[in-house]
Amino acid sequence: MLLLKSQTKLTGKVIFRGDPGYEAARKNWDPHTDRFPKVFVFAQRTQDVANAIKWARENRIPIRARSGRHALETNLSQVNGGIVVDVSDMKKIKLDKKNGTVIVETGNRVGRIAKSLAAQGFIAPFGDSPTVGIGGITLGGGIGPLQRTIGLISDNLIELEMVDANGKVIIANHKQNADLLWASRGGGGGNFGICTRYKFKVRRAPAKATVYKVTWPWDQFEQVLKAWQRWAPSVDTRLGSELNIGPKKGGNVTMEGLFLGSTEEAIRLLSPITSIGTPTEKTIRLLPYPQVVNFLLAPDPVLTQRYSNQFSSGFAKCPFPNKAIKSMREFLEKAEANSTAGFFFLNWGGAVSRVSPKATAFYWRKVKFYVEWNSSWIKPSDAAKNITLTRNTRRKLQPFIVGSYINVPDQGIKNSGPVYYGSNFSRLRKVKAKYDPNNVFNNPQSIPPA
Ligand SMILES: Cc1cc2nc3c(=O)[nH]c(=O)nc-3n(C[C@H](O)[C@H](O)[C@H](O)COP(=O)(O)OP(=O)(O)OC[C@H]3O[C@@H](n4cnc5c(N)ncnc54)[C@H](O)[C@@H]3O)c2cc1C
After folding, report:
1. Does the CB atom of residue 32 touch ligand 1 within 6 A?
2. Is 109 near ligand 1, meaning CB less than 6 Å away?
3. Ligand 1 proximity of 233 Cβ (cutoff 6 Å)
4. Are 320 and 229 in contact (CB under 8 A)?
5. In the chain, where are the structural domains located?
6. From 96, 167, 194, 297, which residue has the greatest number of CB atoms within 10 Å?
């Protein structure tokens, strides 16, 4: 084991390069983001995080926080030669039914929280993958099919525990360090310190809800999208809708989501879309709420995920015109056959849009829908052309989108601060200067101190 000079000792489960377990430790969801850090610290408690930060500073080693390993760009949750402070062994969940709150340690994955709460009769927002870490997703915002009813994941965050650059434990809520709470609701991971605990507001779940999934052949994507983008943003806000369009070769079009109401009403609300084209599969089912969560969070294992990806994202204030759809088609025709590449849309409105853009760090609220697209590849030699494909498509779509989602970042975006944060960027820089003036927590897309 490599011994470095320092006063502080690393505690928790410590894995240096060359130790058993190192290869598994450096496997992120996206292989393109795997790096060769000097050491991984799997913290078992908050003090292990504090020790790791102090040790890293004594040894002048770059620090990366990691929770669920789902970072979608490089050098965010791993860095060559650095220390990765991984909180994924910290997984306590404590529901307070009386006060309608839950305290979760940041090592939990979204699916574990949503399923544990659903089993106890409570509803919590989630996205489209059960294995995304609550650690990272919350800080960037946290979007998903329930956001129109109960807001973003971060809209429900009411308190956090964070270890700062000096190894000091800080609590942020509406009464103390309220600026840090504001910044942590959409400002993005890896900026201010390492979070170890979140407290969320929760609500009673309905006993049952309706889920749906509709599939069309790929060549009907234009018709479906044109109808979806006019319908989805204004449909009843109890209805969340995700539209996926895969690559031309081997892909199809799927729309899935949930409606917090009866199947009869769901069938009626969905009819402007289900009547389009010739769906090859149509499922609309009323399920007990815990099964709703299982339906929408299909397994997504981290260690066996083989595709590397380049994502890019944005928000739209108007439906995509034909010119934008033509650029989408060009992308989908060039994307790798049978891969996980494609376009993803999610409807906005309701609770997410009722909050003022300045009320939390998450700025992009007054839009119609969210859009992201990703190229995918397996062979490292295919990386460059696929990264270029995604970024060229961004240039073509730029006239039709605003902003970008910090949790689905694209490091090809120049001067990205205002793109991710709109006019909240300058306030975020001030909060950064207060909590991390020496920019100890920095990565290729982090917020520079004011
Ligand atoms: C398959 C897949 C599906 C996704 N679906 C959705 C979705 O439906 N909705 C959505 O909103 N997003 C979604 N995302 C994006 C996701 O929110 C981001 O990738 C998020 O950053 C992942 O967090 P993590 O903890 O899993 O990742 P990590 O790789 O562990 O970390 C990501 C970033 O957050 C920082 N971070 C992590 N933990 C902490 C911590 N405890 N304290 C401080 N900083 C921390 C890291 O340093 C890094 O910058 C998805 C991503 C993937 C790969």
Report:
1. no
2. no
3. no
4. yes
5. 13-86, 93-205+423-435, 208-400
6. 194
